[in-house]
Design brief:
This protein has 258 residues and is an alpha/beta fold. The chain has eleven helices and eight strands. The chain has one domain: Aldolase class I (TIM Barrel).
Length: 258
């Protein structure tokens, strides 16, 4: 189980799914179960559902997040959404640099860095995603990839700037594949991530940052993942779309690490 200094965060990433009506129904179920959750809860919804879900969650402890943003405040950027637009619509969080954005839309660490600046300026809690591909893991490049992504994504920010920072470790080979890093693999990677954060800004900073695991998190494996000392929560994809599965993840049981 993570440090008592770091409150667990269970965040659902709905990706490009659900109609408005379905979004409202799922958000209502999450809201109703939030009081018995084992940590902080968030849902990161499609842009089209943000305003409607914000209305459902109003007055509840459930945080509302977006799945991306653009770093400029306004302008001729057809199809993009600014951080200010997100906060205006009711968002409190934003996912940045998800592996699907990096892979499908060629997002770089430099882009993630710019988006991080925009999110922080707008008061959003940023969930910065990092992780290696299967090829990178098999060729022993995992640590180099994580080090590069952390250094590039957080470049230029002081610890005081990053007080809201959340990092999500997502091994790309485990996203949507049904494969999951073992609890030991997750702990090893999270410990490395925390060491890199300490290298940047010291042990105090590193110990305060929540590091989530993402990659085929399910109701069946969440307890063993959350038992690891440096796993502070989960960024949940497919299972967050299934009411019963996500409610079980929200209420994960604290186990003693083996």
């Amino acid at each position: 189980m993570s440090s008592p200094l770091r409150r667990p965060l269970l965040a659902g990433n709905w990706k490009m799914n659900l109609t408005l009506a379905q979004s409202v129904d799922l958000a209502r179920a999450v809201k109703d179960a939030a009081a018995s959750a084992s940590g902080e809860v968030a849902v990161c919804v499609p842009f089209t559902a943000i305003a409607a879900v914000a209305e459902v969650l109003r007055g509840s402890p459930v945080k509302l997040g977006a799945q991306d943003l653009y770093w400029e405040a306004s302008g001729a950027y057809t199809g993009e959404i600014s951080a200010g637009m997100l906060t205006d619509a009711g968002c409190q969080m934003a996912i940045l640099g998800h592996s699907e954005r990096r892979k499908l839309f060629s997002e770089s660490d430099e882009w993630v860095n710019k988006k991080l600046g925009a999110a922080l300026k707008a008061g959003l809690t940023p969930i910065v995603c990092i992780g290696e591909t299967l090829e990178e893991r098999e060729t022993q490049k995992t640590w180099r990839v994580l080090e590069t992504q952390i250094a590039g994504g957080l470049k230029g920010f002081a610890p005081a700037d990053l007080s809201k920072l959340v990092v999500a470790y997502e091994p790309v080979w485990a996203i949507g594949t049904g494969k999951t890093a073992t609890p030991a693999q997750a702990q090893e990677a999270h410990l490395f991530v925390r060491a890199q954060l300490a290298k940047l800004h010291g042990e105090g900073f590193a110990s305060s940052v929540r590091v989530l695991y993402g990659g085929s998190v399910t109701a069946e494996n969440v307890d063993s993942l959350m038992a690891q000392a440096d796993v502070d929560g989960a960024l949940v994809g497919g299972a967050s779309l299934k009411k019963d599965a996500f409610l079980r993840i929200m209420g994960f049981r604290e186990l003693k690490a083996a």
